Structures are given as C-alpha cells and as structure tokens.
Amino acid sequence: MSFQVSDTDGIVLVAVDGELIVGNREAFKEVVIDQLDDGGRKFLIDFAESSYIDSSGLGALVSLSKRIREEGGELRLAGLNDDLRTLFELTKLNTLFQISDSRELALADF
Cβ–Cβ contacts within 10 Å for residue 5, how many? Predict the structure, then answer.
C-alpha cells in the first residue's frame, strides 16, 4: 500500500495504491491530516488503483470526512471499482461522500 499526494489547483489529491485495511489506515489518516493541518480544505481520494477497503478503512474515511468538515473542508472520492461502489451503496456511505467515476471528473466538478 502506498499513497501519492499531490496538489491540483488547491485540491489535495491522495491516490491510494493497494488495499486500505487495518494495517495501514493510521498511515493513511496521518497523510490526510498532515495536509489538513497544512491548510488543505479540498480533498479527493482516488481509489483507481485500489481493490479492497475493509471496515477499518471505511471507518478511517468516515472519521476523516468528519474532521475535514469540522475544519470547513470537503472530502470526495473517485475511481471506485464495481465492488467498492457496491460496498459504499450497501453501507449507505454513498450518501455521505460525493463519488465520481474518475479523478478527472471529480477534479472538474470540485
């Protein structure tokens, strides 16, 4: 698992490569919170290179969303494969997050 962080026109893009699971959720949260502490307010998490998110990974996304909103920001998701999209629908998390099919669509819509 790795995370690539970049800034595109004031939007912090975090590309997740691999699975977001219990073993790396804290590192993921730290990456995002560091960007938040540095002034980032618009976040896009791209899961195009990820195939699996466990319950602790979902919990990390929910807690990050709450923290970012408390700071006046917004967290969006992109690139979910069919299995991940179904997971978000079954858990009703698709109502919490704005989800785009691709990074490009999400960036254009921010």
Answer: 13
